[in-house]
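>> received
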Amino acid sequence: MIDPVEALKKHTSASIPMPTVIPGNTPIYQKATDAGHRTLWVVFVIMLLSSIAFYIMAFRVPVQKRMFHILTSFITTFATLSYYAMAVGDGVGQNKIVIKHTQKHFPDTFDTIYREVYWARYVDWSLTTPLLLLDLCLLAGLNGASILVAIVADVIMILTGLFAAFTVEESPKWGWYAMACIAYLVVIYQLALNGRATAKQKDSKTATFFAAIGGFTLLLWTVYPIIWGIADGSRNIDVNAEIIAYAVLDILAKPVFGFWLLFTHDNFASSASIDGFWANGLGKEGTLRIGDDDEGA
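>> returned
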């Protein structure tokens, strides 16, 4: 017969295995897979072909009428370089995020997340969005002061978004995000209010076209911060979904925008024609003279 006292002693003296792994200490890597990489290559090809098409369209019109063609060609050219950099892995970094989980009766645990951040995308946006804004501002006929304010606000918006993407702590990240949204409101004010009011002073076709393409652009640009918020911000979607979402937006905001702008504007009877320095360079009075002999010296 088994003595219950001895059985209890053996049970209590038996070694109880302790967990050797603390939950939450295994790093989490969020990176693109084949679907994301293929998307980057597809968009690279689309941007490249669009750039070639825009340059061909530019050469088919007189230099006096090439301003919108050249600006739009530069937009997709920079995007081509950016998407090539991201596709080959040269335009990507990692952001380390540490999330603390406070437990009432147990030690705190931490989640360490390494998420890919495509910094080449922000370089792209810092160059292409000012050019795109310049397209719209010149179409509307905005004055130089308003154009400068819109472009500076746009650059601030992109830079603060970049800072937010690489910020480790959650509170500063959303602080940068809030600054970017405030800067975007300035861009909206310049285009939706000042730009539309100025365009109405031109012919009806230009005013209607600006309202359509400007509204289309602002609608797309409003989706960008939403994608950022659920991707880099809260990490609710994976990197592949982030790449695909931005790819769709970039295609609409650059090649589609460009073809719409150039085909429509070229059909206007009163399309912009710029002479002077743009078409002819510096005149005789403004050229630099090198090696001229000055008898009176």
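>> The first helix runs from residue 4 to 13.
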